[in-house]
Specification:
84 residues; 2 helices; 93% helix
């Protein structure tokens, strides 16, 4: 599966990337770049952690729903056995 971030780089050539890097350098300067990249990395990490947490919550809820359905199915099967 292709990561969405890489889709951006499919449309950008070397010249476009050079212009983007030059613009960032002019805006933030050479000394500000490490701090900018560090903060960007932290932001991406927090976003990934949040999405992983949401995925885990959804998975746990789905498992809980599956267990409830199995219990109810077993109850229904038991009641139909006793009435036969």
């Amino acid at each position: 599966m292709i990561k969405p971030i890489f889709l951006i780089f499919d449309f950008l050539g070397g010249g476009e990337l050079f212009v983007i890097v030059l613009a960032v350098m002019l805006l933030f300067g050479g000394k500000g770049m490490p701090n900018l990249m560090r903060n960007l990395g932290k932001g991406i990490r927090q976003f990934k952690d949040a999405t992983n947490g949401i995925q885990q919550d959804i998975q746990q809820n789905m498992n809980s729903i599956k267990e409830d359905i199995k219990k109810q199915t077993n109850v229904i099967e038991e009641t139909t056995k006793h009435t036969d």
